[in-house]
Design brief:
- The complex is a heterodimer of chains A (108) and B (125).
- Chain A has strands at 4-7, 10-13, 19-25, 34-39, 46-50, 54-55, 63-68, 71-76, 86-91, 98-99, 103-107.
- With 108 residues, chain A is mainly β.
- Chain B is built from no helices and 11 strands.
- In chain B, strands 2, 4, 5, 6, 9, 10 and 11 form a 7-stranded mixed β-sheet that branches.
- Chain B starts with a strand and ends with a strand.
- Classes of the chains: A mainly beta (108), B mainly beta (125).
- At the A-B interface, strand 4, strand 5 and strand 10 of A face strand 5 and strand 10 of B.
């Protein structure tokens, strides 16, 4: 099974700052089947990025994704108050879809 | 609008069974062209993929943690997906979400774009 490890576990930043979230993959992905989700308390996850770098419908341009192989990154260029949440990475390169353990983005 | 609504959750004793349903609306004419999945989240924990089924129901995949106990299925004529959960354990306690992928057939690998609100399953004696 492919294991995803997100870092850091918690990221403390202020509105307006740049956020960089990382996800390490235990074995190199053959394709760019990688996604990022945002989850706020009590709500279902929301798809932000799919196929490594494509923004989902309605996702603001400040969110961007990149990476390949075993390292993938989600960048939020300038944090807005509504961006503070938990973020999960996911691979769907194999028939066993796995998620990372999450990064909590909190207000500093 | 495009929507998924889960039902069937509840409190159940260990070893018993439960069947979850996921009803689609807003894309019923194309329901049969999308693969679907179940994802769960234990209290205070992260997301765990549980099972997925192809657009036509011919291919299913289950996580190792539920293999042999849970079965995913779908009825395209009813625009509904199911999760039959047998031999339930305390560690199956979670919110169960149904999800639809981004792109329809023939795109094979897909992220999860549409999510239901979740249904709570509690396994306890």
């Amino acid at each position: 099974e492919i294991v995803l490890t997100q870092s850091p576990a918690t990221l403390s930043l202020s509105p307006g700052e740049r956020a960089t979230l990382s996800c390490g993959v235990s074995q190199s992905l053959k394709k760019t089947y990688f996604a990022w989700y945002q989850q706020k308390p009590g709500l279902a996850p929301r798809l932000l990025i799919y196929d490594t770098s494509n923004r989902a419908t309605g996702v603001p341009g400040r969110f961007s994704g990149s990476g390949s192989g075993t390292v993938f990154t989600l960048t939020i260029s300038r944090l807005e108050p509504e961006d503070f949440a938990v973020y999960y990475c996911q691979q769907y390169d194999t028939s066993s879809y796995t998620f990372g353990q999450g990064t909590k983005l909190e207000i500093k | 609008q495009v929507q998924l609504v889960e039902s069937g959750g509840g409190v159940v004793q260990p070893g018993r069974s439960l069947r979850l349903s996921c009803a689609a609306s807003g894309f019923t004419f194309t329901f049969s062209t999308y693969s679907l999945h179940w994802v769960r989240q234990a209290p205070g924990k992260g997301l765990e993929w549980v099972a997925g089924i192809s657009y036509d129901g011919h291919k299913e995949h289950h996580a190792d943690s539920v293999k042999g106990r849970f079965t995913i299925s779908r009825d395209n004529s009813e625009n509904t997906m199911y999760l039959q959960m047998n031999s339930l354990r305390a560690e199956d306690t979670a919110v169960y979400y149904c999800t639809r992928v981004v792109a329809s057939y023939p795109v094979a690998a897909n992220a999860f774009e549409v999510w239901g609100q979740g249904t709570v399953v509690t396994v306890s004696s």
